[in-house]
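Usage example:
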Amino acid sequence: MNALPSPPTQPLLEIRNLTIRYREGESKITAVRDVSFALKPRGSLAIVGESGSGKSSVAGAILNFLGPEAEISGAILFEGQDIAGLAPAQRRHMLGRRIGAVFQDPFTSLNPAIRIGRQIAEPMVQHLGLPLTEALRRAETALQEMGIDRAAEVARAFPHQLSGGMKQRALIAAALACEPPLLILDEPTTALDVTVEAQILRLLSRLRRDKGITLLFISHNLSVVRRLCDDVAVMYASQLVELGDVHRVLERPAHPYSKGLLASRPPLVAASRQSRLAAIAGQIPATPEPDAGCVFAPRCPFHEPKCSDGPQPMTITPDGHWVRCWKPDALQPWPRQQVTAATKPAFRRGDALVNATQLSKTFDAASGLTTWRLSVAGGRPRVYRQPRRVPAVNDVSFSISPGEVLGLVGESGCGKSTLGRLLLQLLRQSAGSVEFDGDDLARLPAQALSPFRKEAQIVFQNVGSSLNPRLSIGEALERPLALFRLAKPRDRTRRVETLLDMVRLPATYRKRFPHQLSGGERQRVAIARALATEPRFIVCDEPVSALDVSVQATIVNLLADLRDAFGLSYLFISHDLAVVAQLSDRIAVMYRGRICEIGTAAEVLAPPHHPYTRMLLASAEDDEAAEEPAAGGGIAAAAHSGCVFAARCPHKLGPLCDTTPPLRALSPSHAIACHLDPLPDAVVPREFVGAATLGTG
Amino acid sequence: MVGGTLVLSLLAVAVVAQWIAPYPYDQMHIRDRFLPPSLHYLAGTDEYGRDVFSRLLFGSQLSLALGVTATLISMGIGVPLGLIAGYRRGATDELITRTLDVMMAFPPIMLVLLILAVTPPSLMKTAIAIGVLAVAPIARVTRSVTLDLMSGEFIEAARARGERLRYMLMRELLPNVWPLLMVEASLRVVFAVLLGAVLSFLGFGVQPPAADWGLMISNGRAFVDTAPWISLAPGIAMSITVIAISLVGDGLREVLDPGLRTR
Amino acid sequence: MAAYVMQRLGTVVVIMVAMSMLVFLATHALPSNTAALILGQYSTPETQAALEHKLGLDQPLPVQYWHWASRMLEGDMGQSLEMERPVAPILWDAFGRSAILAITSMAVVSTLGLALGVIAAVWRGRWPDHAASIFTYFGVSLPEFYWGLVFILVFGSTFHLLPSSGYADLSDGLGAFLAHLVLPVATLTLTLLAHVARLTRSSMVEALESMYVKVARARGLPERLVIVRHALRNALIPSITVLAQDFGFLIGGIVAVETVFAYPGLGRMLVGALERQDLPMMQAAILVLTGVYCLANLTADLLYGVANPRIRYGGSID
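Running the assembly step on the lines above writes:
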């Protein structure tokens, strides 16, 4: 079946009844079930879904990426030809020449031993028959088109010398080397910082406009595709559940799953303590049974007995929109979660529970023999020791009251994780102090640290490695109880079950091991482990960043519920401003070790902003004001005095910005570290200080 | 798992060698010298009329004892060193690593010869010498596995509880290090057996009249034209032993690898 | 890169010094009395004391070490206790002959071993891989001297194809020279070949299954190009380290192989010196062999630094 009514022009890419099965040992897993869609020339389609939805397998099938364990049936028509049936040599030629691909992880996609320019030039030599010198020249031009201004230097560099954003740009250049009509992108920005992501998306948008490339964009992030794509296909548990125009899907989603997905994304506003994110209950089924009924039915709030009667086919609405649901028009918006008004009042800003004063941490980048340097200065060799000092955290001060949530926002490398660990004394600060409940932690004798450890805990980002793989859940949860003597041996089992209940996991999980649990479940166990010591303060270090969007909402809600139930304080660290805004009472924005802006959530999200905050907001809203003066390529290490953001700031004032800006208070609770006075308001046309821009994207 | 059964049977044979061997290893049958393999003497006799097959069985005791002892010594020293170096980092780590580097700068056999040449050799001393030699590679492997594990956040979670060093090493790190160590251990046993054979062959290991395989091969050298079985038989025995242990090691690695990748 | 080179050079110097100290200490821990050995039947407490004083053996150890080390650096390796001749010339002669064996073997091991590993990796799961696997299993399961004996038995005694011992100088004719080399070299290479092939296979497999190779294929590059230019290039970098490690095993192997084949090289000399407790010879031989290994490692490290772009061009562009 054709997904869209046949347009006058033949579709560039057409998928018909694509089904992909993987052999795993004895059994077979169906990763993609009967998926069909068409992509017209110069169009762009996004395939959106969470992990396990099968979206990457679709791309894999087109690109012949899947191994021999994959069984592919159905037709993949490119320019009218079924490429699945092509001989390997022809398919190879088609892949290089007519279809370009960019993948998720720029760090492993480039060959570490070959120069960038060479890698871009290779396909040109192979498929276009160009001589190497000509191909290299074109490669350099391509890099320039991607917005890299030192293209010659980059072309001669090796992958490890570039930042993530630059690598991805190089990869896009390589994919487009032979000027293919179709470009497939599999989660190309997931591994990148949010500001870099915005730049890459803008680049793609411009390329699409200028070169007329057709895009197939695969992502888990619905909002990212808004600007770039005309149509969206939503996949759930190996099936296509909705397909249609992007604005229709994003504004009036038809399928319950799409509704739920969109609803669970936190809006970029300061939320009240009572609000909770709309979440999709349950989990993605491990072995979906579409023949028994609609696969989404168990989790669907609009579920009726008829939904589980038999397989749910795709229906087409009058305006050409495809939905795998039999009553899409009759459905309400996704139910918003209501929380009964919290019986506890909002926290009182009284004495601080946690107080950080002028906290700094500098890591010695090298150690031992490698710090010795040989220099031949003035004709005489000299051997000297040169430590390379990197201030990860630089003169940071703030306080957190009991029951308060302070959100800490920044991109990778800004020092937020280091700051979290400093608060817990997992790292020793180089300067400054951390006080907990009035006690200066650095001055406490070693024995006295133990009660502190009980009161302050941490939850990590990496769900894969935050639990000891060799300990069962029960053992992992019992350990804190035993260590701090919080329960007598015979009471421990019951206490463990209580903890599991608090994080909404069944008591039977006690006997399971981490690898048997899903990502979201493991994170709940990590939270339960943190709760086991009955702490008053928890550092949450990017606890939801590694989770699917729908699971994120549940965990954020859980953290909010626990906060209310036990009066906990959090330092909530994340790179995602929307998630932080949902949970936090106050927000601190961090860049390269310094706090740029700190205030209540409402104050930080509303103008006036620190220029960096404005850039983050603009990236999140995909605003053009997120433009940077030059494609700098990210947060590099070099420390220099003065405003840390000066190099990327569109409002740089010149020499003044080489001095450290003071933290100026705009209100009793709001402070911004910037020389600019007055600070720029939210929506102002770009004001650049001369430098070349990324193009009119 | 073929290796497993082989190894177990080898172990069994070694243990009961004394009882199942047809003849004591040093019993000479002067009139029956240089006899080729027959029903009486399953692998023939050597230059002193001793039954080669019985000597093989006793030799298995020596070789396995050597292999296991040497490996235990090296692991007993190497594993804690590696764990501490990986966990502590900083100056401790550098000190340990530099020392290991110096030890590894010696060609393997030199270190052992150095130790053995200066004292009269014996089985125990050979085991100790080989054990000491293997400390460096084992410590290195342990250290790199530990470093890998240290980046896992469950270690930080444990530190956030204020766990002490002993708990960290024993309950958090060690259980995760064991599987890889087992694989490495099987390699080390093989290495020890082979090196022990070389040493005995050269005359620096076990001394006659012990029935060590290397020694047997060395003794049989002079008669390799006329009575090749004296030298060949111990080789076959050694080869079976080594292959069996290697199979176990490989099998272990296969079993453990997917399990370890679930992180 | 400069920092890397500096660091390696520094480490080598430290190691050589530490090593020489160890050798010195170990040999001086000998219970036997050097003076008594030299004097033989003329040894009495007085003559021993006199000789010890003359030889400087009654001075504190660090001083003795200093004298010994400085002499070594000048090239004077002392007198062989047994042969009563200077050690140095004998040693360097033997060293030359061993070097021929070592270099030939390393050359064969490098080329064949790498080739075998690559073939096994590219055709993994199919018969070339299985064949290579069986070969390597047997290769590593027996010590070199055993293979040496087998070769002697087969090629020497039974079929009389090749000489089973000794050494023939080039002046005796290229044929004889080579003939005497074949068996020892073959013996040495056999075990090492297996080791190198195995490790090359696994690093090549890792390269072949890496993301960048998949991406190269997705760009439609022909398989041969992918294997040679992309995978091999990366797989060979760790092989350098493996070969260096094997050089150490080679040195051990040389000792055994030279004994089996009665090849008059440094290894055989060392064994003789150890048996006869010829102290100066022992020290010199061990020192030279270990020094060579150190240099080999240094060379390998430098090669690795050149081959690995991360080290050669450290740092980032931004």
